[in-house]
Amino acid sequence: MSREGVLLICILLSSALPGIIIFGLREESTRLRTGLNLLGASLKLTLVVAMDIGIAQGRVFEVRLLLMPGVEIFLNGDPLSALFATLSSVLWFLTTLYAVGYLEESPNRSHFFGYFSLCVTVTIGIALAGNLITFLLFYEMLTLTTYPLIIHRGTEKALLAGRNYLVYTLAGGGLFLFGVVWLQSIAGALDFSSTGLPVDLLGKYHTELVLIFALLIIGVGVKAAIVPLHGWLPQAMVAPAPVSALLHAVAVVKAGAFGITRIVLDVFGIENVLRLQLLPSLTIAASLTIIYGSVRALQQDDLKRRLAFSTVSQISYIALGVGLADQSLALIGGLVHIVHQGLMKITLFFCAGNLAETLGIHRISQMNGVARRMPLTMAAFTVGALGMIGIPPTVGFVSKWYLGLGGLASGNWWVLAVLVVSTLLNAGYFLPIVTAAWFGKQAGPWPQDRKFGSLETNWMLLLPPLVTAFIIMAVGAVANARFSPLAWVRFIVREYGI
Amino acid sequence: MLTTAPAKYRRKRIDPLVVLVFFLLAGVTAMLGRTICIMPQQMPGLENEVARHLHNSGVASPVTAVLLNFRGYDTLLEVMVLFLAVLGVWSLTRATFVGYMGDVSPVQLAMVRLLAPFMFLVAAYLVWQGSHLAGGAFQGGAVLGGAGVLMLITDLPWLPMVPARPLRCGLALGPVVFLSVALGCLIWSGGFLVYPLQAAAFLLVLIEAACALSIGLTLAALFVGGRPYGELMEEQPYEGGSGQGDE
Amino acid sequence: MMSTNLLYSLTGLVLFALGLYALIVCSHLLRKILASNIMSSGVFLMLVSTAYRAGNGKIDPVPHAMVLTGIVVSVSATALALVLACRVQETSNVTLVREEYQHDTSGA
Amino acid sequence: MLIFDADAWIICPIVFPLAASIFFFLSRRTGPVAAPVAALATGVSIIILLRQLLLFGPRHYYIGGWQAPLGITLRFDGPAVLMLAMTGLTGIGITLYARGYFSFRIAAPKRVGRHERQERFFWPLWMMLWAAMNGLFLSSDIFNLYVTMELVSIAAVALAALSGKPASQIAAIRYLLVSFLGSLSYLLGVVFLYKTYGILDLDMLQDIAGAAPGTRVALALITIGLLLKTALFPMHFWLPPAHANALAPVSAILSGLVVKGSFYLLFRFWFEVFSGAISIGALNMLGILGAGAILWGALQAMRQQRLKLLVAYSTVSQLGYLFIAFPLASLEGNMKVWGAVIFMAMAHACAKSAMFMAAGTIYLHIGHDRINELVGIRAYLPVTALAYAIAGVNLMGLPPSGGFIAKWLLLSASFNSMQWWWGVVVMVGSLLASVYVYRVVCQLFIIPEGYTIKKQYPRSHLLEWPAFTLALISLLLGLFAPYPLHILTIGSSNVATIIPGGPP
Fold first, then answer.
1. How many structural domains are present in chain C?
2. D307 within 8 A of D323, measured Cβ to Cβ
3. Domain-by-domain residue ranges, chain B?
């Protein structure tokens, strides 16, 4: 195995091993557990950055492992996987810090952090997957590792949410498996490549390929919460805040969106997808989801539920960008949104968790004047919210700008309309929160009020959202810098030669 | 003991399902019968093979040769099946026969007292003759078992008098001897159940004798239908194995 | 003309079928056990009838050995079945195999 | 060490447990101490066989030095050794678990005599069953197979009745009658074969067996007999009560191992020995029954209120997958389907015995197995709860479990042979499996607010870890798939041959 291959394995092990060790730890050994967690997180971050640099230098990162005759586990670090892997490892680091603070006194932490680490391992596995089988393998394992996190609280509501989650994802996983096997029986075991399927298959298996595409997209669409497959996501809100943050920004939803990207770009190939005329349906589904999610978000009073519906809407920007893949600008907008949405959404969830943990606030109607009690948290929240709306210089603006340009370039004026409407809706459901928090009058005492010395809340809860808020601003401001996500996405798109 | 079914379970009218089963079975049987009829009626079996190798088997009777030598492995397993039956029966319940007799006519008593020793003799003869004529361990064992059963139902309760350990040893004698000989052959002549030619006759008689004893004992033990008292270390007398199960 | 061996074979087959019929139709345990014994007798009869059919007067000893083994196996199974049937009658007072008794719903 | 030739190792997996069985019968006290030793010895002998297979390829061993057709031949090839490995792995696990189980029960204050009886007879019966299973996989003589099958059945019935519960005894006698009927049907098939060919050796039969009328009838009779013993839907009625009412280690043995024996024979008969006599219609019939088993078993499992019954019905369902392989094997290159079947059998053996062990541990600790009242088990039996969950992952066929590999192979075989509908059945079965697995896992893993452990239970590592280890093996089996699949191909020419008799 080459040095690069070893690096890939180490990236996976850097969170898997701490996870397994943590399972065996006793509940009381908090310090050791935290140490292991942070060690794993920082190690992983370092290794992923090393991989990024290697990829930028043109080195090849590959590991192959025979699973059965004709079926390989193939890990491959290409620019697209680097994008997702980097996002995951950065945000995992912050989320771990946050989770340590968040769960300081709750029971079953060994259990929680064990699955937490495995979950990230699997997410990175999805990022690094080099063929559909490997992707499938990690994709199914993601279901298994996130399920215990969702039901972590063990309440009736959590169990119900968990059940729905399983119903949706396992059914989706089943369809996905079906599609994968079918595709393999037609095309053989194919690695991801920028060219996609061999062209000669298209004529021979036109109908089959369309069906397979539908199966695969539905399979990943469940996790990406594309309407009408989104039902599990708002319910999954009962999970602890770090889990929600992880689910929405990094792991599950993002894995789904990433899957759509992979299927369109690397499994079928843009040329083939265009030839089969599969993209319009994807674009339409994405647009509907964007509008639907925003409208539903408007109606929610529960803060986390509003954020959840906002995720439904925002994730589909990625699908929209991929759906317009023939336009490089739109594709850039979609891909870069993988990173941008993650940053913004995780900030918002961190802040929501802070409010709940410190003041017991769960509803938007309770938030009047909360910014005077927790100015830093609400500042971060405001940055995230403005980003979601798409106001410069935040990162949200960059995504929407590119998507809009792409839509115009492709001649689909309605894409622009969708963007405008969704921006207005975004503003409609985020701005009232922000104004109420900053300018509203506190109606009564907070449901609870925990004191943390001179800080407004535990420093481990405060630091992560501030960092991500800063990144949102910074990355938005210097979007054209050499190592910004945007530059990296341009690097990716160049490979597809559109 | 089992009783016959109470009257309400007896069928009064003809169940259509039964008719269906009847005709179905009749059809299948007819089909099988037809297959038997059209099958070649004269088809050599393995008699020539057996005849060719008989002189190497150590016995003169072809059936015994097949049983103990050519297909000795089958017979080893068969002895194990009997042994297993005792194990299974013992695991189920205590012997219920102990102590119960009822009226035995003096004629029967006298008859059995006379007959039993004779039956032992016949059994021994059958085992011995098995090496060249019809007969062998199973026939001998069956007669032995018959004698045992006769004695048991004639108020000669010899079985409860045998202490637990010797009884176990007696039951296991056949399997142990057979298996030991088989393994001994492995060391002696390099193959499982490959009898050394010069010792084959002796070994076969040894196996037959041990098995006959065990089979006789086994049949009697099966007839009694349960483990003897003293088989378990902490068993209370007349626990009876009944009562509500706890799992 | 029907040869001896064929006659025995067919008789064995009929015995087997009769036993099978009784096994299916009778619900009393003892009858079921007896029925299965008749079935095995039928099979053994068929098996032993194959011993004499080479046409040259020679007798094949292998079926004999197989029948002997089969009888012993059948005796063992029957013994276990009878004792089990007694136990069933003792503990649950059931002599019929019927649906109601197959699930122990109490769980304890 | 010994002067006999290396081939003689083939009898060790049979002789070791056989001798152990007699020994445990003779001496009342040694069972718990010596059983792990005997199990380990058997395991080691299987490993040695495996090594010999890798070094020298498949072998025949003539017992008593008499070659077929006169004598009985033992044969080990890839599939047989893999099945032996299955019994070895599961057997060692079950033996260790049973030790923990009985010592835990005997430590419990109630009904001392009964518990002693159970342990006293468990060891010899189990060892005998194990020996017979190994004999079954190695034997290459149709009549000898009958004897080993009877040995297996009688031991299995005695074990099933061992718990002493009335329900278990009724279940056991049904089991005995069904299994006896199956054996007789099989034996009748053997009679037809002997009438037709005058031969009992499988390899020789394979060379000469054609589509003669006697062959088809014999194959039909043998198939019916083996199907009864394998409990294929709709002949499964005896299985759930027998498996669910037995003692936990016994349930593990019955569900994990015993049903696989007759299935293995069936597969071997159809695709090696009588591949010339099978027809597409019959294959599809078996496939349909298999599909029925998958769906019906899963639906029944969802409805059960008792954990052990649920697990038992899931066995009915999982056995169905094995029969889906039949119609696929006719068209697809045989290798893939053999792989699927062997994988399914191995993974299911490990997972199902782990499940029954976990269920038994739960039963021992809380005194019942009503699914709706299993809340909070994780709090004091974390390893067991996890073992159950992992085994469940296997039944659902999610990666990286062995069950996933099996389902993958089945799916891809179904697409490659243009019979995608079998693939649909497999997928639906997996989804249904996840429903019934989820029902229990969700209960096990809930810890309600304010839940406290009522009393401090004694911890028994032997109760928890064997189940966990077996579950883990079944989970990780998928990652090591190339090795078993490689061993399978050593199997002999039989495995690699493409089945004739089907359309091109």
1. 1
2. no
3. 60-224
